[in-house]
């Protein structure tokens, strides 16, 4: 059990090293990546099962005592996120392998992708704030390069924004770490809760806001989200999909951890500041999506809007609110990724994701339309799909906390989400294209068929989302239990 | 000594922020590098006053008169990371310059396109509204 | 660039610097030095040679692909951490052996050395990769 904890970080790193050694042999690289990520997913599932049965596992690097050595902590929350994230990463890898062109374009795709996975896994498992900084950087550095692989004009300018904004937020992260360490003398999350509680209120609040700002940039909260819809759509689909599913959610996870365990937000009373930010994020994100007319750009703006929901649950500060946030993240990672993969299938077959250049694909690719529907309805929160349950839990938690304004905002945003999903549906799957699509075979009539492995990977991910919908009840119980340690930290002060 | 360092941190952050707000990419990169240095210096400051031995072992010294070695390890890690990212950013800026012959950050093209777009909804939207 | 002074002194300095980088690598852990610093010094030697003789010369004489160095180094470093797990320790836990070697006296070998060698290889591989990509004409 103890040996399992660092493995989700180590295994992808070792595999990344192997794919570098096997540089130039694409088949070997693919085999290594697939085996490593399958194993990592299996380990994540095993960790979840063990943690669920035996309670959290803590491992310190180098066998040092906790407080001196850096701790890896696998509790229910991190194991749950890790499992969903690794399953998603695996499906996207299968998609990328199926999409021959994009992978062959870049000889470094596999090592970078594996390093990105290691960074994500490390962030979820980290029990130390400086280690969190390092794993964040590992993840971001890999993402910078993945985003600029082709290096042409269309990618470099948006990527510049992405890199500059994230580098700025990393510098602020470092500043926050230095100030926190200067104030408390430790960076171990378990020890920080008590020490931060003893700080003068002004210092505590300043540190809390600094950390909220840092992770708010990473999670794309209002008003710091502008970099996201600009940069994400320019990358190849497999890269955008995994970014969309995971990167901002790691930011949300960091907010969830630090605000509750370190700064005691989860003490049962709502945090007005976080709630206002959450409401603005939801609303502005969805309004941005409505103004767009490209599948990937619409979906990118929806990431912003959905992050608002997650932060809404954190702002409530109650057990139900935090559990709803956890369930929302668990549902959101596969659903968002699946939607991007469907967008990728459309682009792969027609050559474009712009709504005016595609159309009538429901007739020509019924399978792809069938894959889009559950994801889109889920995003809008329509029962019985997976998005309905976390939204219901959020609304209930919001009503129980008496936060009627934000509940109203979240319901209105749901309607807007449904509207922009129907916009994609009508533009892509119904009607006729206004301008001819770029690819020749898409201009002719008759059925279109995307590569089989790409479709299979998307099917796999959609199956995961349906699985979440079916097991929403037990998952919510699990989320409630995962939220407990966050609350105990808050109750301790 | 600590005051001098604190002032240095402030100056580095200040100039870094000023450069970051410029339109020229090279200035942005240099600004980020300066802020990175400021953050590293701040990490060192978090370890206590400078000039003290990092480890316990000299019994003649009074208790507490030790520098904490941990921030130095963190600063070293952070320096490597900042160095790597700034180097990448520099390469990206060079690439951008080579592609466009221009070092200026343009306005957001997509934003301007939407701002110019007619208020009347386009055909795609009209189709699904009754 | 073709400077006689530079090429001649590079011939004398190149191996000296490489040797010094190895010294730093092995002196690490207990004394100032270590894999990262050693790798940087070795990288500096490579860059010096690239300045004197051109990047292609370095890449050609290195006879090893930078990706292999990067991957091998990362494998060694990550493998040292994982190896401790296999031996029943904690992640990245280290052990050491002491041995009396004739002429050298008591030598203490720490398993961290393997990790350091990995870091050394990664840094050298990185410098080589830089020389490969910067040595080429810019592909605009």
Notes on the protein architecture:
The complex is a heterotrimer of chains A (493), B (130) and C (140). Chain A has helices at 7-21, 26-54, 76-98, 100-105, 109-125, 129-147, 153-184, 189-197, 201-219, 227-231, 237-262, 272-291, 295-316, 319-350, 361-364, 366-380, 388-400, 404-429, 440-443, 452-470, 472-491, and strands at 57-60, 71-74. Chain A is an all-alpha fold and 493 residues long. Chain A has one domain. Chain A has a two-stranded antiparallel sheet. Chain A starts with 6 loop residues before the first helix and ends with a helix. Chain B has 130 residues and is mainly α. Chain B has one domain (2-56, 64-128): Helix Hairpins (Orthogonal Bundle). Chain B has helices at residues 2-20, 25-45, 70-100, 109-116, 123-128. Mean pLDDT of chain B is 77; it is low at 123-130. Chain C is mainly α and 140 residues long. Chain C is built from 5 helices and 2 strands; from the N terminus they run ααααββα. A two-stranded antiparallel ribbon of chain C has the order 1-2. In chain C, a hairpin with a 3-residue loop joins strand 1 (96-101) and strand 2 (105-110). Chain C is flat. At the A-B interface, helix 6, helix 7 and helix 18 of A face helix 2, helix 3 and helix 5 of B.
Write a brief caption for the model.
The complex is a heterotrimer of chains A (493), B (130) and C (140). In chain B, 65% of the residues lie in helices and 0% in strands.
Q: How many separate helices of chain B?
A: 5
The helix/strand order of chain C is HHHHEEH
What fraction of residues of chain B sit in β-strands? under 5%
The SS-based structural class of chain C is mainly alpha
Strand tally of chain C is 2
First CA to last CA of chain C: what distance? 24 Å
State the helicity of chain C in percent bands. Answer: 55-70%
Tally of individual helices of chain C: 5
Strand composition percent of chain C: 5-15%
The coarse silhouette of chain B is: elongated
CATH level-1 class of chain B: Mainly Alpha
Looking across the biggest beta sheet of chain C, what order are the strands in?
Answer: 1-2
Q: Cα distance, first to last residue of chain B?
A: 73 Å
CATH fold descriptor of chain B: Helix Hairpins
Largest sheet of chain C: 2 strands, antiparallel
Mean pLDDT across every amino acid position of chain B: 77
CATH architecture of chain B: Orthogonal Bundle
Q: Name the structural class of chain B.
A: mainly alpha
Q: What spatial form of chain C do the alpha-carbon principal axes imply?
A: flat
């Amino acid at each position: 059990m103890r040996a399992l904890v660092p493995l989700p970080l180590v295994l992808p790193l070792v595999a990344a090293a192997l794919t570098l050694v096997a540089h130039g042999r694409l088949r070997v690289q693919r085999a290594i990546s697939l085996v490593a990520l399958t194993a990592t997913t299996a380990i994540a599932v095993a960790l979840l099962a063990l943690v669920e049965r035996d309670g959290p596992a803590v491992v310190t690097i180098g066998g040092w005592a906790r407080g001196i050595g850096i701790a890896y902590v696998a509790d229910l929350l991190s194991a749950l996120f890790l499992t969903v994230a690794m399953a998603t990463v695996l499906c996207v890898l299968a998609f990328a392998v199926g999409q021959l062109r994009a992978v062959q374009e870049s000889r470094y795709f596999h090592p970078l992708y594996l390093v990105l996975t290691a960074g994500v896994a490390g962030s979820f498992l980290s029990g130390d704030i400086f280690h969190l900084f390092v794993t964040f950087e590992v993840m971001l550095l890999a993402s910078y390069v993945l985003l600029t692989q082709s290096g042409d004009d269309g990618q470099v300018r948006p990527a510049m924004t992405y890199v500059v904004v994230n580098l700025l937020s990393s510098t602020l992260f470092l500043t926050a770490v230095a100030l926190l360490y200067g104030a408390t003398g430790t960076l171990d999350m378990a020890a920080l809760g008590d020490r931060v509680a003893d700080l003068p209120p002004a210092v505590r609040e300043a540190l809390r806001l600094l950390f909220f700002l840092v992770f708010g940039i990473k999670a794309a909260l209002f008003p710091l989200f502008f970099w996201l819809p600009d940069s994400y759509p320019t990358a190849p689909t497999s890269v955008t999909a995994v970014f969309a599913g995971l990167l901002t959610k790691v930011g949300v996870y960091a907010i969830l951890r630090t605000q509750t365990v370190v700064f005691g937000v989860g003490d049962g009373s709502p945090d007005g500041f976080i709630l206002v930010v959450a409401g603005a994020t939801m609303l502005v994100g969805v309004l941005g999506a409505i103004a767009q007319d490209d599948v990937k750009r619409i979906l990118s703006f929806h990431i912003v809007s959905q992050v608002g929901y997650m932060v809404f649950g954190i702002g409530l500060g109650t057990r139900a609110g935090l559990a709803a946030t956890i369930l929302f993240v668990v549902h959101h990672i596969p659903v968002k990724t699946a939607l991007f993969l469907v967008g990728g299938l459309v682009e792969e077959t027609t050559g474009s994701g712009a709504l005016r250049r595609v159309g009538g694909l429901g007739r020509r690719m019924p399978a792809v339309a069938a894959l889009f529907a559950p994801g889109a309805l889920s995003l809008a929160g329509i029962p019985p799909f997976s998005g309905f349950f976390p939204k219901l839990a959020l609304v209930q938690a919001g009503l129980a906390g008496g936060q009627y304004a934000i509940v109203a905002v979240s319901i209105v945003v749901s309607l807007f989400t449904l509207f922009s999903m129907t916009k994609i549906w009508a533009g892509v799957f119904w009607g006729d294209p206004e301008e001819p699509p770029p690819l020749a075979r898409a201009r002719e009539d008759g059925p279109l068929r995307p590569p089989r492995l790409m479709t299979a990977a998307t099917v796999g991910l959609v199956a995961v989302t349906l699985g979440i919908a079916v097991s929403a009840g037990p998952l919510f119980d699990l989320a409630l239990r995962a939220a407990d340690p966050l609350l105990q930290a808050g109750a301790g002060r | 000594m600590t005051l001098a360092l604190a002032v240095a941190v402030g100056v580095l952050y200040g100039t870094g922020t000023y450069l970051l707000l410029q339109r020229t990419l090279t200035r942005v990169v240099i600004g980020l590098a300066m802020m990175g240095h400021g953050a590293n210096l701040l990490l060192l400051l978090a370890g206590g006053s400078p000039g003290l031995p990092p480890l316990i072992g000299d019994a003649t010294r009074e208790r507490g008169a030790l520098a904490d070695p941990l921030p130095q390890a963190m600063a070293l890690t952070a320096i490597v990371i900042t160095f790597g990212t700034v180097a990448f950013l520099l390469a990206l800026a060079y690439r951008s310059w080579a592609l466009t012959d221009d070092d200026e950050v343009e306005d957001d093209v997509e934003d301007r396109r939407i701002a110019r777009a007619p208020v009347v909804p386009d055909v795609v939207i009209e189709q699904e509204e009754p | 660039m073709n400077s006689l002074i530079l090429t001649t002194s590079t011939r004398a300095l190149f191996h000296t610097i490489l040797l010094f980088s190895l010294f730093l690598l092995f002196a690490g852990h207990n004394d100032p030095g270590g894999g990262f610093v050693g790798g940087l010094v070795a990288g500096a030697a490579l860059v010096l040679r690239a300045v004197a003789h051109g990047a292609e010369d370095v890449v050609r004489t290195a006879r090893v692909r930078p990706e292999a160095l990067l991957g091998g180094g990362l494998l060694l470093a990550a493998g040292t951490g994982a190896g401790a797990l296999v031996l029943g320790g904690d992640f990245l836990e280290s052990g050491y052996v002491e041995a009396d070697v004739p002429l050298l006296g008591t030598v203490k070998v720490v398993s961290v050395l393997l990790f350091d060698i990995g870091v050394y290889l990664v840094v050298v591989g990185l410098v080589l990769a830089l020389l490969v990509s910067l040595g080429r004409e810019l592909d605009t």
